Amino acid sequence: MHLFTYRNGELYAEEVPVKKLAETYGTPLYIYSYTTLLKHFLAYRDAFDRVPHIVCFALKANTNASVLRLIANNGGGADVVSGGELFRALRAKIPSKKIVYAGVGKTEGEIRYALKSRILMFNVESGDELIEIDRLAGTMKVKAPIALRVNPDVDPGTHAYIATGLKKNKFGIPIEEALEYYKLAQNLKNTKIIGIHKHIGSQITKVSPFVDALKKVLLLMDALQGRGIQVRYLDIGGGLGITYKDEDPPLPQDLAKSLIPMLKGRNVTLILEPGRSIVGNAGILVSQVLYLKKRAEKYFVIIDAGMNDLMRPSLYGAYHHIQPLEKTVRKTICADVVGPICESGDFLAKDRELPALKRGEFIAVMSAGAYGYSMSSRYNSRPRSAEVMVKGKEHSLIRRRETCYDLIRGEHIPDFI
Ligand code: LLP
User: Fold this and answer.
1) Which of 112-126, 158-172, 190-204, 344-358 shows the lowest mean pLDDT across its residues?
2) Of 278, 228, 248, nearest in space to 47 by CA
3) Within this chain, do residues 268 and 284 fall inside the same structural domain, yes or no?
4) Ligand 1: residue whose CA is nearest its atom 9
5) Which of 218, 237, 272 lies at the terminal end of a domain, its last residue?
6) For the chain: N or C, fewer Cβ within 10 A?
7) What is the pTM of this model?
8) Pocket around ligand 1 at a 6 A CB cut-off
9) Quick check: helix, strand or coil at residue 167?
């Protein structure tokens, strides 16, 4: 569901014509719908209402402070994977006791920062990391709350780059070895076992991989209990897919319907780490058509947004629907929609059937709210785009467009040059 809809042939973001926003703030421009975001977040909260739970928004999908504040204001927590994300979460007033921290390469500085911040738990991804966290907690005279991230070896049926729960992936501890590592953790002086974590991948469009993975994790929980290890938090990760094209993914309520009965009689707080399913369809990227280039073999629509602004199509061959802001009767073209970057891989769509676009008109790249701005770069020295949030008739800049001075900020030319 989202609130980017046509009214009398004109695309609106909630109550505001998108064209007005493009003219006011310039392009490329990320636009988020407040109401869509909130609805998506509350869908999780309501679906899992019957069990103790925390919805820890995965910051990697979108780190804008306004998005995070909205989550914080509605009782959400955060799933972070770096000191930088932890900093952002805390700045946005997400309570530290609702923050979980995953990632295979946590540094000493990051671990100290998280310990000092008193986060809810570390989702530990290896034996080495476990020992390092324990050592650092010892030097700081605190106890480190931990969960082990287990890798349940379940195929999420998604793009290879975003599958994380298979044996061949770098994430977590193989589930069949987990008991050994829990025993190791039990003997560490400065570590407190409080949970189990798993995350099997992203853009998952069926419930069954979640069920299969949870079954395996619950067996582990029973084995732990047999060894006197009680876990209070069961973190099932994120990964619910969204509709980019014609996918029909389950909703949080479908997930809840299948998973909650499996937890009967277990005294645990469930942690969910959704990213994409909260923010993906709550955001669009608006761009302007600069030039049309017709060749015998190919038709190119050249726009002012490139792979540096939205890299998902280039990186994963991901599909994002592209539509003009004005819906009029026109001929159809088949074109590549490409950006200004000097790379052949710089495209937002390939061989796409589109209404014949005109020079100068604005287009909307849909479902761009997750892993859009957060994965953007300044490649080719392109200042990053602006971000705007709309709520009803109101709209506001939530991140200003970068300038050329932002590009060189922090650079230094030494005397020896
Ligand atoms: N928790 C953990 C430990 C994760 O690694 C991820 C995503 C999430 C939660 C959130 O997953 P979500 O609910 O958003 O599916 N850049 C890729 C997606 C990479 C996802 C990485 N991990 C893309 O644009 O599709």
Assistant:
1) 158-172
2) 278
3) no
4) 238
5) 272
6) C
7) 0.97
8) 58, 60-61, 79, 102, 162, 164, 199, 202-203, 237-240, 273-277, 312, 370-371, 375
9) coil
Residues 402 and 288 in one domain: yes
Distance (Å, whole) CA 321 – CA 57: 25
Q: Are residues 191 and 167 in the same domain?
A: yes
Tell me: do 299 and 330 sit in the same domain.
yes
CA-based nearest residue to 407, from 381, 376, 388: 381
Residue with tokens 């539509």: 323
pLDDT of residue 161: 66
- Picking from 404, 368, 370, 366, the residue whose alpha carbon sits closest to that of residue 384 is 404
C-alpha angle with apex 153: 147 to 159, nearest 5 degrees? 105
Read off the pLDDT band of 162 (50, 70, 90). low
Residue 249's identity, in one-letter code, is P
Indicate if 331 and 349 belong to the same structural domain.
Answer: yes
Q: Quick one: tokens of 348?
A: 């937002």
Which residue range is the domain that position 287 belongs to? 4-32+280-408
